[in-house]
Amino acid sequence: MGLKTRHDYLKALRELKPNIYKFGELIKDVTTHPATKRTVESHCRSFDASHDPEWADLYTTTSFFTGEVIHRWNSMMQSSDDLINNMKLKRQNYRRTGTCSGAVCVGWNAQNTLWAVTKEIDKEFGTDYQERLKNWILHAQEEGLTVAGALTDAKGDRSLKPSQQADPDVHLRIKEVREDGIIIHGAKLMICGTAASQEIFLLPGGIYKEEDSDFALACVVPRDIDGLTIIEATRPSDRRDLEETSEAEVPNTGITQGLLLFEEVFVPNERVFMCGEAKYTAKFIQYFTANYRACIGACVSGQGDVMVGASVLMARANGLSAKTFTNKLVDMSINNQITYGLGAGACAMGFKHASGSFFADPITAHTNKVMVATLPYETKRLTQEIGGGIVETGCMPSYQDFTNPQYGELLQKYYKAGSASADARYKAARLSEWLTIGGGVPGCMHGGGSPDGARLVVRFSTPFEEYAEYAKTIMGIDEDVQEPQKIK
Amino acid sequence: MGLKTRHDYLKALRELKPNIYKFGELIKDVTTHPATKRTVESHCRSFDASHDPEWADLYTTTSFFTGEVIHRWNSMMQSSDDLINNMKLKRQNYRRTGTCSGAVCVGWNAQNTLWAVTKEIDKEFGTDYQERLKNWILHAQEEGLTVAGALTDAKGDRSLKPSQQADPDVHLRIKEVREDGIIIHGAKLMICGTAASQEIFLLPGGIYKEEDSDFALACVVPRDIDGLTIIEATRPSDRRDLEETSEAEVPNTGITQGLLLFEEVFVPNERVFMCGEAKYTAKFIQYFTANYRACIGACVSGQGDVMVGASVLMARANGLSAKTFTNKLVDMSINNQITYGLGAGACAMGFKHASGSFFADPITAHTNKVMVATLPYETKRLTQEIGGGIVETGCMPSYQDFTNPQYGELLQKYYKAGSASADARYKAARLSEWLTIGGGVPGCMHGGGSPDGARLVVRFSTPFEEYAEYAKTIMGIDEDVQEPQKIK
Amino acid sequence: MGLKTRHDYLKALRELKPNIYKFGELIKDVTTHPATKRTVESHCRSFDASHDPEWADLYTTTSFFTGEVIHRWNSMMQSSDDLINNMKLKRQNYRRTGTCSGAVCVGWNAQNTLWAVTKEIDKEFGTDYQERLKNWILHAQEEGLTVAGALTDAKGDRSLKPSQQADPDVHLRIKEVREDGIIIHGAKLMICGTAASQEIFLLPGGIYKEEDSDFALACVVPRDIDGLTIIEATRPSDRRDLEETSEAEVPNTGITQGLLLFEEVFVPNERVFMCGEAKYTAKFIQYFTANYRACIGACVSGQGDVMVGASVLMARANGLSAKTFTNKLVDMSINNQITYGLGAGACAMGFKHASGSFFADPITAHTNKVMVATLPYETKRLTQEIGGGIVETGCMPSYQDFTNPQYGELLQKYYKAGSASADARYKAARLSEWLTIGGGVPGCMHGGGSPDGARLVVRFSTPFEEYAEYAKTIMGIDEDVQEPQKIK
Amino acid sequence: MGLKTRHDYLKALRELKPNIYKFGELIKDVTTHPATKRTVESHCRSFDASHDPEWADLYTTTSFFTGEVIHRWNSMMQSSDDLINNMKLKRQNYRRTGTCSGAVCVGWNAQNTLWAVTKEIDKEFGTDYQERLKNWILHAQEEGLTVAGALTDAKGDRSLKPSQQADPDVHLRIKEVREDGIIIHGAKLMICGTAASQEIFLLPGGIYKEEDSDFALACVVPRDIDGLTIIEATRPSDRRDLEETSEAEVPNTGITQGLLLFEEVFVPNERVFMCGEAKYTAKFIQYFTANYRACIGACVSGQGDVMVGASVLMARANGLSAKTFTNKLVDMSINNQITYGLGAGACAMGFKHASGSFFADPITAHTNKVMVATLPYETKRLTQEIGGGIVETGCMPSYQDFTNPQYGELLQKYYKAGSASADARYKAARLSEWLTIGGGVPGCMHGGGSPDGARLVVRFSTPFEEYAEYAKTIMGIDEDVQEPQKIK
């Protein structure tokens, strides 16, 4: 039965072998360690929603394969509505957690993208990748897995191809092909949601040619697979998460990124979905990014909703009516709706792949990526403008000081503004701070790839010559107007 | 048979009784008069496309009522795909004409909106408006009509309701209800596409209460109905259209706005679809604007495409490679795709009315209206930046001078830059000028209503209190944080 | 005595030999011809202000050479205060006329720039250019001349240098050097203020090397010099200026651009200030653009002030309180103050040349040019947003129709909104239209050179390596971090 | 002798009585405690620069009173050049430290503002405040003091005046006036540079009326005065500063804010410069903010310079040429120059007060404040865009992990990109992170007051009616066009 509860999920995480480190220390239990418990809690809320009558329709669906009820994040996406439901779930996740839930996001996208790519590979090479993938999907649906996804390689010297690098490990690679599986070696960096995941998709980090076929690799591994060491990345503000007083200073939710170090890791064949077919990395990247960059608009709009809410709260905690800031709040809402609506537009204008998978319209999806890397910054700026000085750069005492026996009472007296308590104002300010300059800031700039990469897709998707012909027709210009010839 | 040709259309226009004036003169034949022939040509291109194998799928469809092939602009829109096809047609129209084709746009939207509203009215009041409308739609489909739509009233004193105005005529009104029809009186201002239309929908210009029921009026009239006088508005640059040399200075296409003066005009019952049911004006405005403001994103993106094309052309005519301006061209393409994709998103997230009509998601549609009133200005700015000084403020001689026997040859010598002829460069520069500061500038700011009106819808569609609750939950704030109490 | 009146000025213009054409016709008297009388009126207002007790301090000053009272636009600028007064005069000119007064602007800048450049040339080459220039300045001050300035050449193929062009005439050139003067031949295009000028400075249009020394040319000529033919450029909307009803549709003021065709024109030595000294064209361009692009911020801010005023007027004419638009009006005022204040900052941080001339800080001046090419577009957008649909795309009848005996009264009835008359509303709407999409739109994009050119100066003025060193010092990075080596 | 060295300054700080707390702990020595040593180091660099031949001209000047050489931050500002030198020093301070040096900034501005205000008060009330102030300035110049300044009160309920508050202490107040001095009580919040200061100016936090005269208070106190307790505010990321590995993760420099709790503090008369003269609080705020908001443009431009430098560094550390990002780097440079140049413009157009003090032009200064609260956000966004994912949200391991014996070497292998070492890349990424989402983010939004406050000044400084008159004159509208009358 594919629907799991928060309890089941926590139990499953605790059963994984500890292999995550932070600040030089092995995290024994990700569900309770202060460095990881918040992101686990974020993901728990998706399990809660799956059983919440108000939200079950969105968070669950029926399996395309078995017809059974499953978590939506384990499902196949085969129509624009499926994609839009992905977006709805993402926006709602952000509204519940204020941040990213990477382990119910990237793996989902990966399985659907690979569904199409494996079909193409199988067709050309007679492989059975799609069948393998189907089996794994059935397992994931059955277990209600949370699955992270890893694309980004270390990359080394950006001017060289993977096979040209001094150190071949700077891209995760197939080191050996055995009869029963493959040995992989290398690293994946800044992978979102790792600590909350049960399994991890390993995916091509770029578009490769034949000479780089050792790096054309897709598979899925348990998070605690032998030979994998995970180092949690640190954000500027995450030491605060570790303190006893952290409850007053940071939310109960969160996201973390992990660095995955693979040392001679064996992956059995049934979990391998691409193994050297370099020419299909282009398809993978194209399909994956189209859906990812369409749907990421929902993420930043959901976080924007929380920024709107935090700003309303903060205005009132400051003793002001939220109406004072109507123009700014409406601008924030417009920013949110742009990335959300543009994402939905990309989904609506997408195309159905022969495999059944559905993919978003590339030019619209990549246009959205540029907006996703732009508008949230303005929304954050407005959050800081509305919140006032105590929000902007954390001009508040630590909670240790705020509750210090010697002068804490005095501080609290001075931090009371409107009818809200000093404590509520303190927390509200910390929330706006967290959302705009703390741990809640999502990776909307480079997450899912850079905006310059997206601009490149827009460039190659825009039919400039066709447009020039329209201009000529409208004005009645018959003459051929050409690019100037290069002077040698 | 509902499919008409350019020839049929021109013939039909010529058969209408002349009632359009400009510069104090009665226009005898709109199809040949220089003040109107360009907008007629713009609409002709929609008839052409209906018979063009490449475009017929988009420009035609089958009638929901009869199953016959009809022009798409006479069809019912009953799904998100129907709405998105409306957008596609609009974008393509702009690409072909560089400007608006109002008479294959507003009437189409009106008939679909009224289809829903009449159903609601009929249900409450037992009227037979929807049946009347159906009969008219069958007629329109049969004749392949071009139909303008008129909402904007003169409005008089903006602080007073229609019934409070010193002059009751400042809103078009029902002056008398007869057994066989109604007498209407007043005016509709700045109505797009009138000169190219065969019929005109008259629609409520605002949301009215009971006391203003005389103004709650929807009907459709032939463009040459008795008692209707039309004055063509003038743009700053349209005197140029009248000159003999106009072919070199302005495109063959165009759009015009008309001012409709109704003096005791009789409309028979079968053409009346709302007559005093004031409370349904709100529904009309809500449904109409949702679809209009979703789809208008396609208009400005289509014109943006032409600006991209004109800029490519202009760069080359200046002797430069279009690649010099890649960043700017990509920014323009992104602007275009934002309003287009956001419109598609509004369509995709719309809702189906009990009548079968489909309407776009309001908050997304109105968000798009704000973008439509913003981004094209930046696209125009970039068009002028790429085009150079001769584009920006028309720093070129008139074509009379350009071809003057005394000094024209000298001028042409100096206007040649790259491999293009001086004539091609002249025309290309005039096109960019026309698109950015001439007759090609569309009414994207206030057409379909003001952006401030759209912001109001965004404001009332954003659930601020719900968002504040999300913020509280995320931060674990249990306390009620309230609006400050007003001090009396 | 250097102070002239409007009357003196008009008389002087009338005494010039007619050599200006428009629409194929020779303009006999620029002071009365409808194509040029408005720009002449604009310039008249500077003479008026010179005698207005409220403004005389700004519009006049004392001659550095003679100590006599002169028009400020004939003066030497030798301090940052002199430059800022140039800006103040420009802002005030725009406020009075709504547009540019090119003949009391470019010549002024030219004489001051050449004052510095001739000193440098004389020092190297032992020429007496500065002395010649001084004599001419004394003459200009004595006569209170209006002096246009012409930089822009036809340019031909942008990828070739002047001497490489198929047609050498596409840059104005020294065709022959005689003992008593030079013969020049070629053209200058889109020269602002020509029709209102008495003399014209001819200036280098680019930075040239030795091989292009024939194009390194600076001199000043009477506007009606033998061999010069001027063609007035046409804007999209200027046919309207010629009509009998033009007073209701366009302001009394204006600006025009002229195309100057030089055919074997003799310029006597005493009016020649650079003749082949190619290396000094770089200095000329550098100094000239620094001052021009600093001060142009005042122009667009002055026009912005009028847009603010027109918007206040328009709001009221529409029957609304200007307070409805406070946020937008404040944004407009901020835009105005940015370009003005940034210009003043460039002046304040400028430098004094050994000749006594004072020049603005280049990086700040060129930054301002980028703003000048950006912010006014947003201010115009806001003007259209506030003004409503009748402002945006000229959705108004022509004045012929507005006053037509048959239906004019009816139109006027419908165009009345608030307490203002229909006529006042009509004119107010025409003004906003003229400012944003009509003849009042200034050439802020390319006037004084392109923003991309300005960005280039910013690029070369920013000490990137020095800034990288700051970053290293702050972070304690000792290592040398280098540009990647090019791979061959 | 007024010039002190880094050594003198550190010694002076160590001699102050410890009264600063953070995280519940008393900081015994601000010069060595990791929570404060970085901001002290920032200020040390100003002393270093005062003795650096390259910079001494900027960092020192001669005393207006004694003619002796003093630190510039102790000087009187009596001309626009003095103000611009204030800006130059601020920009340079940011370039050296990456952040704010509040203790050589606010006190300096305060003494100059009070110089003017005390003259006005003395004139009306016959007091001797200016003489007292002069004596204190002589002392400050003699000792080369670093002086913070404190305006912001706790404020309590924003809808009530100070005297109406339930708790009168929420604004710092004069509790008792004694013959030899006053007793003050209350708090000042989020005061920048406190920990690095030797003395602190206490200044009016708002504009008060007579009934609030107890809050009209200006004086200067030693930082360790009896009855003053200071709590250091915490930023989201400052726990990192306390760690042993902090040198690799954060710069050596920094800024902190303090919360000042005054309990019955006695201030002797010679240090009191305003004591109840409520009507002069308006003048104080007006003069103070004009200079502060003009000059703050230099701060953000200086930090922007470091962001440019960090971005160049980061591009190279990523193995890319900085040229890849030329457009973005130029945009950043333009942003920097806007706030700097606009500030200089405000200074250049300022006015000289009868006291000799010089104040910036209000509308330009407040326009700049709006830019200061906007442009740096875009500059930060670009810094993150150029830097890549590792910069954006700190997707890097902690330095403890980076150097961990078990897996540190592996991490370093994967963090090497171009020719720079992994360590240099790590530090460069941390710097960009620190500048954009860490402790280096300056309080440019609300520091020196909110942008909405600045917009209010712009609003009241813009002569809307005068501008409407210009519009009328240009268009020849004679009629009076009025605001609509309010309907009762």
Tell me the quaternary state.
homotetramer
Q: In angstroms, what separates the terminal alpha carbons of chain A?
A: 70 Å
Uncertain regions of chain A: pLDDT < 50 for 5+ in a row? none
Portion of residues in beta strands of chain A equals: 5-15%
Adjacency order of strands in the biggest sheet of chain A: 2-1-10-11-7-6
Summarize the amount of helix of chain A as a percent range.
40-55%
Q: What is the molecular shape of chain A?
A: globular
What can you see in these coordinates?
The structure is a homotetramer of 488-residue chains. The first copy, chain A, is an alpha+beta fold and 488 residues long. Chain A has helices spanning 6-15, 37-50, 56-59, 80-97, 106-125, 129-143, 246-249, 279-317, 326-348, 362-372, 375-387, 389-392, 399-402, 408-415, 422-437, 451-461, 464-475; strands at 20-22, 25-26, 60-62, 69-71, 147-150, 173-177, 181-192, 199-202, 217-222, 228-232, 257-268, 272-275, 351-352, 358-359. Chain A has a six-stranded mixed sheet with strand order 2-1-10-11-7-6, with no helix packed on it. The first copy, chain A, has a four-stranded mixed sheet with strand order 5-8-9-12. The first copy, chain A, starts with 5 loop residues before the first helix and ends in a 13-residue tail after the last helix. The mean pLDDT of chain A is 96. Chain A has 17 helices and 14 strands. Chain A is globular. In chain A, a hairpin with a 3-residue loop joins strand 6 (173-177) and strand 7 (181-192). Helices cover 46% and strands 14% of the residues of chain A. Chains in contact: A-B, A-C, A-D, B-C, B-D, C-D.
